[in-house]
Amino acid sequence: MKLSFRKAVEADIEFIVEGIIEAEKSGSDKLPYTTLFDLSEEDTAKLIRDILDEDIEGQEWCLQHFLIAEADGQQAACLSCWVEGSQGLGSGQLKAQAMAYFLDKVWNEAADKLKLLAEMQLPRLKGYVQLECIYTHKAFRGQGLAGRLIEFAVSEHQKNDIDFEGCEIQLLANNSAAVASYTKCGFLNRRESTCNDIRILDLLADGTRISMVLNRQNG
Amino acid sequence: MDKSKIRTDLSTLFNKVFKCGEIEITDTLTAADVERWDSLSHLTMVSEVEKHFGIRFKLKELTGMKNTGELVQLIADKTG
Fold first, then answer.
1. How confident is the model at residue A218 (pLDDT cuts 50, 70, 90)?
2. B44–A contact, CB cutoff 8 A
3. What architecture does CATH give domain B3-79?
4. Pairs from B68-73 (Cβ < 8 Å, separation ≥ 24)
5. Under a CB-based contact definition with an 8 Å cutoff, are residues A27 and A178 in contact?
6. Which pTM does this prediction carry?
7. What are the residues facing A5 on neighbouring strands?
8. Which of helix, strand or coil describes residue A175?
9. Among B73, B5, B2, B14, CA closest to B49
10. Strand, coil or helix: A67
11. CB distance A90–B46 less than 8 Å?
12. Does B28 lie at the interface with A, CB-CB under 8 angstroms?
């Protein structure tokens, strides 16, 4: 299998939308935007496309932050990477701003559910490269592609960014396969945050969020 | 609107939204400097600012804003 890595282009948008949706499900069948905003998967895909179209740097749903792994010329895996806080506002504020803009009243109606989510929010490390929306198409799973793509993203930042401090990945605790894969890449558990309200499990696959970090000296 | 008046009003609004006590609105102030400035309180702040000054921000304006200096300038431009 011939592997190659490249920056995403507009023609990758549908693959990226699929990747974001699958990554958000965190290995379950629970899509947070369906449970939070009562959106169908189709409406969620439209919301993601709308935000990708805006090209808002500094948050995960930005086309130019995506990298694609191709296997024998086919889109096989993707991830989003950006430096946290490089655009002034944090990625959480930027993404929430964009979602609230497109969802409008639907966002406001979800205020109570959003408060539950906020309870388990972990501030991302400012200046660290954030890796998100890490996804491998099912036809290419079990071959370590996501790990290879992560290594590529890390090495590109190490090579090109003199201020490179390290990388951070945030994920839900239920996704043990992903935790094992990131540990294999050298990431260590930094901290976690739990929402103790049982209703969180109606919204997400797990009530605990983990932050895993790969510091420069570990890399 | 005069920028110093905008800063004074913002200080009151920030105190109300972020519950941060007296806060000086400098040009370089960012979300990272205010403890309770998270993604949800950020949206409340934007909504309160729009209501208070009778303006409406575009998405590009909001996501491109780097600090409160740029927020003050935007409000000044919109209020004339």
1. very low
2. no
3. Orthogonal Bundle (1.10)
4. B68/B10, B68/B25, B68/B26, B68/B27, B68/B28, B68/B29, B68/B30, B69/B26, B69/B27, B69/B28, B69/B29, B70/A88, B71/B10, B72/B3, B72/B6, B72/B7, B72/B10, B72/B25, B72/B27, B73/B3
5. yes
6. 0.88
7. A69
8. coil
9. B14
10. strand
11. no
12. no
Start-end of H helices in chain B: 3-18, 39-53, 59-63, 68-79
Q: Which amino acid is at B27?
A: D
We report the CATH number of the domain holding residue A174 as 3.40.630.30
State both tokens at A62.
């930005």
B54 touches chain A (CB under 8 A): no
Domain that holds residue A199: 3-218
* Rounded Cα distance, A158 and A139, in Å: 30
The total domain count for chain A is: 1
Please compute the mean of the pLDDT values over residues A124-145 and round it to a whole number: 94
Among A62, A93, A107, A113, the strongest candidate for a mutation testing the B interface, having the largest count of B CBs within 10 A, is A93
Cβ contacts of B46 on chain A, cutoff 8 Å: 97
* A177: its two tokens: 């396969």
Query: In the predicted model, what is the mean pLDDT of residues A202-210?
Result: 93
pLDDT in tens, A28-65: 888 999 999 999 999 999 999 999 999 999 999 999 99
The complex's ipTM?
Answer: 0.74
